């Protein structure tokens, strides 16, 4: 019912909440069977955001085909890249990033795509040198106010998984360029400390 377009929104949302409640009591053998059933229904078609949300709520997303999960999260990366990580695009960052926990957070993202998403989030978080303009004279770094708390939350929750991804970004050309400013570099250090904690 949570996936059915013919059901009223209230019924779909209640079904989604019930799936989340049952997740803790579901045996792994049942998850495998349910994942097989869902994969048979989906076939080779690309996964939709709704399918991924429901699969994560049911605890079956890791059992889906890796190629389909990779393609789905690659489309999420493309959406983030289209928005851009500049602080000027902060109005679009919140809505895009709020979906990630419903998709299973960074832990659900296959490693090759996760590294790129973590890079985008890092560049968005660390921002760019500030101190100019009438509103920014006292602000040393311009960064996305809507994205920063969401990125902090995701990085803290999945710190074990993304620690090497974040640490490796110290060698990334774009991150190094941004960190040529000492105040931006401090924000990167804060992220590194966050995932090392």
Descriptive account of the structure:
With 197 residues, the protein is an all-alpha fold. It has 2 domains: 1-64, no CATH class; 83-197, no CATH class. 62% of the residues lie in helices and 2% in strands. The protein is built from 10 helices and 2 strands; from the N terminus they run H-H-H-H-H-H-E-E-H-H-H-H. The chain has a two-stranded antiparallel sheet with strand order 1-2. Helix 4 (66-83) packs antiparallel against helix 5 (90-97), helix 4 packs parallel to helix 6 (111-126) and helix 8 (159-168) runs antiparallel to helix 10. The longest helix has 18 residues, at 66-83. It is elongated. The N and C termini lie far apart (41 Å). The mean pLDDT is 91.
Order of helices and strands: HHHHHHEEHHHH
Number of helices: 10
Q: Please tally the β strands and state the result.
A: 2
Terminal-residue CA separation: 41 Å
The oligomerization state is single chain
Structural class of the helices, strands and pairings? mainly alpha
Strand order of the largest sheet: 1-2
Q: What is the CA-based Rg, rounded?
A: 19 Å
Give the averaged pLDDT, no decimals.
91
**What profile does the largest beta sheet have?**
2 strands, antiparallel
Strand content: under 5%
Helical proportion, percent range:
55-70%
List keywords for this structure.
197 residues; mainly alpha; two-stranded antiparallel ribbon; 10 helices; 2% strand; elongated
